[in-house]
Specification:
It is built from 17 helices and twelve strands. By secondary structure, the chain is an alpha+beta fold.
Length: 412
Amino acid sequence: MLFAIAWRNLWRNKLRSSVIFVSIAVGIIGAVFSGGFMAGMADQREDAAIANEVSNIQIHNPEFLLNEEARYMVPEAREKVREIKRIPQVKGVSDRLKITGMAASANAGAGVTIRGVNIAQELKVSDINQYVIHGTYLAQDDKFPAVIGQKLSHKLDLGLGDKIIITLSDSSGTITSGAFTIVGIYKTSNNQFDESNVFVKKSDLAKLVGYPVSDGNEIAIRLHSNLDTPMVVEKLNKMMAGEVQSKEIIIQSWDQIQPLLKSMVAMMDYFSYLFLIIIMAALAFAIINTMLMAVMERTREIGMLMALGMNKKKIFNMILLETIFLSVIGALVGLGISMLVVHYFATYGLDLTHTASGLNAFGYSARIFFRVNNGFYLTSLILVVIIAIISGISPALKALKLQPATAIRENN
């Protein structure tokens, strides 16, 4: 009976109740929308970093990580590649020759990282070939080909077919230069990466600097699922335990290579929940105000209920139930609409092309695909119920302070 009375009381002032329903629904939609947007941005940045920049796992000589001197090679790189390929979770493995140098044209120069790659291996590890917007990706038959980023091509004023001069230190420490023909220009969502990375064939780069083609100072590993990264890292540490313990090699996951990115992903989830709590806290004041008004308007009615024998506990529960009904209905409506909105933007993405240049400067794509975990929806609903209970306490206590005899004589 108490549930029925509380439910009917909600609709005695339809306009006031509707305003609160809409306020809570809009608040929930705003919180879920912002949470989905932030999570989508974090996911996109993480996926782009794994696909184009660092892969899931990398293996290096520890000395190489100190100053990236090319001479610090991974021992028996080719043999390690063959062993790693046997791990079921591995999608692809590529041994690279990675050297820091200068790229120059007749008009300008820039510091770059030259990545010498095995073409067949690299296609399974990196998605750069999918981002080539002019020309083609590296081909085995081409003579000294290079694929550069669009940002670098603009900086050096170079186009397809032009020569880019690469200057670096060879195996003896002598400065040497080589001319590569630009066969492709790529564009990712990260302008900084595009401006500082040149892709060439590993055999060409090894020939230029005087290293054996079989050598490599970086092994990049791409997995079918990023969720398997910790497990595969553990497998690799066991597989190469002797070399790891003797510090001949170091095995790192993507979040160890880019800890700032990992922190950013965690912070995005944190801010999603923080924003939800802030919105709910703001709505709590509106709920308290609404229920206080409802109690004040029904002073005589509440007094009559007390006089007829309804105890204070039931009065308290009735006001509390009204508050919970008021909040939960708004929350359910808001969550229902939010799920539809998130599903749409998770499928088609939010187009931010007009801000693409700004987003790309920080490594973000101009199209954001939303993501909201089921746990966020459940947390939202639980938080609404908690806020409703807390908000209903003050109006309910106000009702309990009424004296039946005085309340009955009250003119509403």
